[in-house]
Design goal:
Blueprint: E1 6-21, E2 26-42, E3 46-50, H1 57-64, E4 72-77, E5 80-81, H2 87-96, E6 97-100, H3 104-107, H4 114-125, H5 131-144, H6 161-173, E7 179-183, H7 191-208, E8 211-215, H8 219-225, E9 228-233, E10 236-242, H9 243-248, H10 253-261, E11 263-264, E12 269-270, E13 311-314, E14 317-319
This protein binds adenosine-5'-triphosphate, iron/sulfur cluster and magnesium ion (MG).
The site of magnesium ion has 3 residues, from helix 1.
């Protein structure tokens, strides 16, 4: 079998935040936001990263982008360990890797025109480019995300939420990136607008051959856009699978719980929801063995003994659960879809 070459891969990647207390700010513990994650994203692929609030999705994305340094582990980008690079060595990778955020209004400077916001990354990454060439490129990219060239002179407050997110995407595209980490990019938008922006992501991904890490808490969103889905809980990947396989045959009890809470797009109402027992454990003091065991309906004594490895059960479908004797409920008859309003 040929192995696809990953564009970006994490190896044992961890990010722990020190918790400090007292006047001296002494470290009294650490939040294990990301804990020994191995994740491989192939060139041209869209991987969705899902999980509850606080599971570590944004932190994993940010550390993969080197927006903050990892506590340990590696991030291999196209064969280079960027986590071990100096800022100077990292510079060319900063152009290749771009981020799109949830709230474009707060990530766009309200006092800057669209032209200034869009051309700023070019001034940093391609200082040799003339002002005229930068402006032409901004107008071209705006058009490619469905906005008119004339909007270049306008300010962020003059746009709707969906249009502002198009500007956020345009800004990421200005420097011809290879990899985009989009962190909840449609969560703040109305459902009808969400589908349009997701369609734009799909379109630019195909047209530009982009690789995407799509962070979202919304399973309907990953069903719409992702080739594969990674499910995160308490800083760890619980399951990773092709999107259809994850929805049709979840292999991890936590995935089953998440899927049970997603609305059924066929029936238009929630299916029988699995209610998780107990409170989410603190990421400062995660349970021993399987971190999901305190809330898992299938837990057995052995689950407390060792952290389950992420093991491939079917081609491309891996799960971190010691029990292979349980049959879990699939999500729906098909993956959830978002409907764009005409
Ligand atoms: N700078 C920080 N300092 C201390 N703890 C942090 C920091 N950033 C994140 N955390 C903690 O790390 C854990 C993971 O947070 P993160 O924001 O990555 O989760 P998330 O899955 O993106 O959640 P959400 O869906 O709410 O965005 C949480 O317990 C959070 O409180
Ligand atoms: S290892 Fe045990 S506790 Fe963890 S998900 Fe599997 S059955 Fe549940
Ligand atoms: Mg987040």
């Amino acid at each position: 079998m040929t192995r696809l070459k990953p564009l970006i891969e994490t190896l044992g990647l961890s990010k722990h935040f020190a918790v400090r207390q007292g006047l001296l700010g002494r470290a009294t513990g650490a939040v294990r936001a990301v804990d020994e994650v191995n994740l491989r994203i192939h060139r041209g692929e869209v991987v969705g990263l899902v999980g509850e609030s606080g599971s570590g999705k944004s932190t994993l994305g940010r550390v993969m982008m080197m927006a903050e340094p990892p506590s340990s582990g590696s991030v291999i980008y196209d064969g280079y360990d960027i986590a071990a690079s100096t800022p100077r060595q990292l510079h060319p990778f900063r152009r290749k890797m771009q981020m799109v955020f949830q709230d474009p209004y707060s990530s766009l400077n309200p006092r800057m025109t669209v032209e200034d916001s869009l051309t700023m990354p070019l001034r940093f990454h391609q200082p040799e480019m003339s002002a005229r060439a930068r402006r032409d490129k901004a107008a071209e990219v705006l058009e490619s995300v469905g906005l008119s060239r004339s909007t270049i002179t306008r300010y962020p407050h003059e746009f709707s939420g969906g249009q502002r997110q198009r500007i956020g995407i345009a800004r990421a595209l200005m420097v011809d990136p290879e990899f985009i980490m989009a962190d909840e990019p449609v969560s703040a938008l109305d459902v009808s607008v969400q589908a349009q922006v997701l369609n734009l992501f799909s379109e630019i991904r195909t047209r530009l051959g982009l690789t995407l890490l799509f962070v979202t808490h919304d399973l309907a969103v990953v069903g719409h856009i992702a080739d594969r889905v990674a499910v995160m809980y308490l800083g760890q990947i619980m399951e990773i699978a092709p999107t259809r396989a994850l929805f049709a045959a979840p292999a991890h009890p936590y995935t089953e719980t998440l899927l049970s809470a997603a609305p059924d797009p066929v029936l238009g109402r929630n299916r029988k929801r699995i209610v998780m027992k107990g409170e989410p454990p603190s990421p400062m003091n995660p349970p021993s063995g399987c971190v999901f065991r305190t809330r898992c309906p299938y837990a057995v004594t052995a689950c407390a003994q060792a952290r389950p490895l992420l093991v491939e059960r079917a081609p491309g479908h891996a799960t971190a659960c010691i029990r292979d004797d349980i049959t879990l409920t699939p999500a729906v008859r098909d993956t959830p879809k978002l409907q764009a309003h005409a």
